[in-house]
Amino acid sequence: MHAVSAPALDQRPDEADEVDEAYDSDRCTHCKRLQEEHHRVDTREGPEYFCPDEAGELLWLAAMRKEQKFAEILASISAPIGTVGGSVDEPPPHTEIPDSVDGEPVPDVPSASQGIPPKIEIGPLPPLTLNEWRNRELLEPDFIIGHWLTTTSRALLTAATGLGKTNFGLALGMRAAAGIDFLHWQAHRTARVLYIDGEMSRRLLRQRVLDEEKRVGASPESFFALSHEDIKGFKPLNTIDGQAWMNALIDKIGGVDLVILDNIMSLTVGDMKDPEPWQQTIPWVLSLTKREIGQIWIHHTGHDETRSYGDKSREWQMDTVAHLDAVKRDDTDVSFSMSFKKARERTPATRFDFQDVKIALVDDRWEHELTDTRRPGKIPPMIAKALDALVNVIGSDQAVPLSGARRAATTETWKAECTLQGLIDPNAKAHSSRTLFSKFRRELVAANRIACEGDLSWLIR
Fold first, then answer.
1. Coil, strand or helix: which one is 430?
2. What pLDDT does residue 448 have?
3. What phi-psi label fits residue 179: left (phi over 0), alpha (psi between -120 and 50 degrees) or beta?
């Protein structure tokens, strides 16, 4: 019997380079046996035969290849399979390796993970001290929408089936592409957005996309929508093939700033209660972040509609976790509240963007109502006069009626009233006037005085 001893993982055997050359002749250079008398192991590249005298070296090789199952099989080898019962022409499967060949117990063989820790010499240290961190020059986030969505964001959006996740995702993505504010979130710039649908028919996706285009009032050329039905043999995104194909698509369309994936259940394969399917996705998720591609992963809830379905570990790598809960209304089927369960980017200065909000699609228009119970904030005198101008328009025949007996003002009529009140100089450059008016609107929203959606602004009750 040939005893097996595994070397430490940090020590490469002198003959490791010759492992694959041991079978160039009819007989092994180590034990002088024929190839058929050696251990057969089925690898991803096909069957391979290994000498028992080499088992320790092969443990090292398996560890280097990161093939844990391969290493476990090799660790259990102690003698040529061909010498144990039966003919060498009919060796048992590699999963049926006998415990011993001569009645004696097989000596314990340390697994690849139990090797002696290697000695590590660390070179120059990374930034560690407070002064080093203070003096680091790091890029600021590239914001897309609000303060919660950037080109490096990883967000998880969860909701029950039929609540409006897809409609909301399309609305957010299309406005990000157009550079248009959405709800109380400010658009910072136009973005290249890829929406990947893995559930709906292409007929229904076409309808949803075109309906949202009408609501936006623009046709952003940097918005891309992909239906899984249009890709023959669509590969799950927790497989190497699926991830490689998606990377190729992103490159083919010239790159993107944001990808919205609808949804985890339909775009990956495996048991959602098992952490493994999502763990297979993580390397690709992190690679997108490294490429500065923001991500929103849409996911279902289960019977418990207060939390995402299945394994919770998928939330660990996320910067933001947002959840939608149903809010019943008689005038619409798409109505929900949105709350941020996890928000790494939230600070006292940006908490406004992370507060709970009620959202509804009513009369083919997105509406929202902030649920923050704080009192309206104080505003400077000039901003207060801009609020008075809005009140004047809402009280006139120029107001736009909304559901619930509410009234709103268009940007054009409100700006005209501000000009009439002397708040905006009619002779100023267009850019200056637009900037000043945007300040009025932004500070009133931040002070919890008004709500806005697209071209409309209205008072918060």
1. helix
2. 80
3. left
Q: State yes or no: pLDDT of 374 exceeds 90.
A: no
**Structurally, what CATH architecture does the domain formed by 143-370 represent?**
3-Layer(aba) Sandwich (3.40)
Integer Cα distance of 68 and 56 in angstroms: 15
Lowest mean pLDDT among 85-94, 120-129, 183-192, 310-319: 85-94
DSSP class of residue 449 equals S
Tokens standing for 64?
């280097």
Judge whether residue 126 has pLDDT over 60.
Answer: yes
Going from N- to C-terminal start, the domains of the chain cover 16-114, 143-370, 381-459
Rounded CA-CA distance 45/370 in Å is 58
Task: Could you list the beta-strand ranges (E) of 17-137.
Answer: 39-43, 46-50
Phi, psi dihedral angles at 36 (to 5 degrees) = -65, -15
3-state secondary structure of 410: strand
Q: What is the pLDDT of residues 21-66, one digit of tens each?
A: 444 445 666 566 676 666 666 665 666 666 655 544 454 445 444 4
Ranges 87-96, 307-316, 346-355: which has the least confidence = 87-96
Give the Cβ contact number of residue 215 at 10 Å: 18
Beta bridge partners of 150: 143
The pairing of strands 143-145 and 149-150 is antiparallel
Q: Which two tokens stand for residue 356?
A: 């709970």
Q: What is the pLDDT of residue 105?
A: 52
Q: Six-digit token pair at 235? A: 């590969």
- Are 164 and 361 spatial neighbours (Cβ–Cβ below 8 Å)? yes
Residue 169 has a CB neighbour count (10 Å cut-off) of 21
How many CB atoms sit inside 10 A of residue 292's CB? Answer: 15
Question: Which fold does the domain 381-459 belong to in CATH?
Answer: Arc Repressor Mutant, subunit A (1.10.10)
Residue 368 pairs in a beta bridge with 359
